[in-house]
Design brief:
- InterPro entries: HTH_LacI, LacI/GalR-like_sensor, Lambda_DNA-bd_dom_sf, Peripla_BP_I.
- GO terms for molecular function: DNA-binding transcription factor activity; transcription cis-regulatory region binding.
- The relative contact order is 0.12.
- The protein folds into three domains: about 55 residues, Orthogonal Bundle (434 Repressor (Amino-terminal Domain)); about 130 residues, 3-Layer(aba) Sandwich (Rossmann fold), CATH 3.40.50.2300; about 130 residues, Response regulator (Rossmann fold, 3-Layer(aba) Sandwich), CATH 3.40.50.2300.
- Helices cover about 40% and strands about 15% of the residues.
- It is α/β, with parallel strands linked by helices and about 350 residues long.
- The chain is elongated.
- The protein starts with 11 loop residues before the first helix and ends with a strand.
- The strands form two sheets. The chain has a seven-stranded mixed sheet with strand order 7-6-8-9-10-12-13, with helices on both faces. Strands 2-1-3-4-5-11 form a six-stranded parallel sheet, with helices on one face.
Length: about 350
Amino acid sequence: MQLPLTIKELPMGLKEIARMTGLSITTVSHALNGTRAVSQKSMALIRDAVAKTGYRPNGAAQALKTQRTNMIALIIPSTEPNNSTNCFFFDVLGGVKQTLQEQGYDLIVSTYSENDPHFLLGGIPVLQKNWIDGVLFVPGSRRRAECLTGVDVPVVLIDRRLDGVSLPFVGSDNEQAAVRAIELLAQSGRRRIGYIGGTLDFSSAYDRYRGYQKALAALGLAHDFSLIAYELDYSLESARNAARSLVRYGADAIFAANSVLTMGVVQYLNEQGIRIPEQIALVGFDDYDWTQIVSPPITAVRQDARGMGARGAHMLIELLAGNPPDPAAVVLPSALAVRQSHGGTRGPDTL
């Protein structure tokens, strides 16, 4: 897609309308883009030709006039080989898409590799070609604020923060969600509560681990590094290996801080004949359909992923209108879907 900067680059539909009406391409272009008045007779001819050809004015030409494309980019991490991912970002996408459609914006989705230590947001082709008005961005490492290099449009961060950056942000209450999960396990009498999570480079994973530490301290439970496995990739194999280690070191409960990691823990415990929750209690993160149909059903943190996407889109639209969002940082509450896997006596409900 290229911007039609010269007459030679104008689309064939425009040339066809000029041929049908006997008018110049310049006159037809001005009429369709509203850049100059034309006679009523000429306009009538052009409308008739447009109706016959089904021609639609080029959006890029409109962008030249308004300096806006009404196009938003959502930039999310890609799925890496041998790295199972959950559908969290698809739910975020759903909230973004619905909100933008309601407000008259179009959406482009692009991905990047979290394993690329030199990734620059400004290097993504859709940003280089000036197609978009703003960006909704899920960053990788919270320590790499330089990834924003080369971006000259408004940006709103979704799900993960960047340290030292004051951009608008919307995410979940990851730390407090982890605190509630550990408290629930402790209420069921567990004292050796293990942690399985992803890289602390992700602000979301960092906050969940910090919540785990905070809860242990508040409850007077030991912070035993033999019961902790983090810096994992989000794969079933990583979770299985971590669960094996935690079981070997005497964990009586596990908090798995990601949906895929939760699946890997369940898989390993089932394969080993280790009963949930009688021998190992479990609380996971992200509540999807599968957590309700396994035996026993899994107690899990429930994030509002669609709400996160919708709120991020609204914040970006406010920025584009010249109104910095207030508040600039939004933390959405999560819920705890309480089922049987944590070992308590409560039935299925949501805290």
